[in-house]
Amino acid sequence: MQVRIYRPAKTAMQSGKGNTKAWVLEYEPASPKAADPLMGWLGSDDMTQQVRIKFASKDEAVAYAKRKGLDFQVFEEATKKPVPAKNYSDNFRFDKLEFGRF
Question: Source organism's superkingdom (predicted)?
Answer without folding.
Answer: Bacteria
